[in-house]
Design brief:
The protein is an alpha/beta fold. Helix content is 43%, strand content 16%. It is built from 15 helices and 15 strands. It is elongated. The termini are far apart.
Length: 498
Amino acid sequence: MFEDYLYARISDDEIGMEKGITRQLRDSRDVSERSGGRVVDEFSDNDISALAGAPRSGYDRLLAALAAPNPLGVQRRIVCVHTSRVWRNRSERAAGIEFGKAHKIIVKQVNGQEFDLRTAQGRMFAGIVGETDTGESEVKAERVADVARERAEEGRANGRVAYGWQRVYEYDSRGKIVGFHDEEDTTEADVVREIVGRLLASDTLKAITDDLNTRGVLAPSAGDRRKHRAKGQTADGALWNKTSVRKIAVRPANIGLRIYHRGRPDEQLLPAAWPRIVDPDDHDRVVALLSDPERGQTKPAARSHLLSWGIGECGVCGAHLRTTWKGNAKWGKKQLLYTCEAKGCVGRNEQAVDLRVRAVMLSLLRRSDVLDLLDGSSSRQAELLARAEALRARMSAAALAFAEGDMSAEQVRVINGRLRPQIEEAEREARQHQVSPHLSLVVASVGEQAEERWDSYSLVQKRAIMEAFGVRVRILRTRRGPGFDPESVEVKPRDREG
């Protein structure tokens, strides 16, 4: 009679159903019964690859059980489907064989020979078979790496299609799949562009996340079967969170690039075979915006007042402004004031100050030369992007003329051949300039629509526009008593030279 200790392991079980483990243990029980064994205990490690030496709690408990005192000297066996389930890398196998020698263990395989680790021959054959297992795994790993490299160089996706695209399979005359390519999924791509656009318009990650979930827009992970979900996520993964929104916004895939060997020393960005769904300049701006180390340092509660988080300052000592309720019986009920954060040098009614800021900003945004007041790099970038857009419009006009029969294909080819290098040069030069992440928001705010747009913006968006122009608001000292003096609130944009 043998004392049998069953062990099972499966490398990949992402959804946690443990069907492979159940099958291995069932087969091991059958072998134990047929060969005169008595099952003492069963151990398993699910969804854990042993090749890389990952920790295995089941395997550790198996060894502990086999190392326990054996006063009756009953022969103990490890019963497994194959030794590759027990050992896959050389170091674990060598240690396991020596352990078996010390504790007089036999390894019984469901599919294969038995190894008596008490004997030199048993240990030798266990090592030979194990080395074959390891060699096969390493050859397979090399082959997979070569295919992955080839796939990366061809720009093809690694795995399933990413959010924003749909996979189109290609078939031969017999209906056999011979390849595939990824095309834009209009619905999902529009969500990606919306996220990028709203971030560039100074919307917050939280606001975008809440809105997508309220509207019932399914998250990229919707429908995936997984063992573990983030806290607050539904079982089907349908909800967005700030992390998933941010990841979607900054993916190089959005502009037709794929990452090869992510996080490794040889990480590369390679051209992708799928179409881009976000303008490269918008991508650069949103990456710069979300990479800003100052982003997120201000608590959301501090953003309920326009000037209380750094854009307003005391005209006496230069300290930041904060808000506080003040008032007495002489001047009536309490009112919310902007006050000097450091010494209380000044204090002014918040509502009146905000109305003063609104009036000055509307006057600024209606100026015909308002974009010239941006810092030099942003102004030049806007000019270059406008030029590139105008050239694209000319290309589109040529395509329309060809469609209507007013222009030949050769004429369109010549026009495109001349315009495309000019577009690429304008875009290249634009990327060399410092990018204002809120440029699109600023451009959308100027002109006759300034008042309507300003009043519709959140405090965060208003602040972004003021920052783009370098606006600073200084509260100056004034006479005490009722009434509000607009001249005591200085609202000035940055000088172009400053």
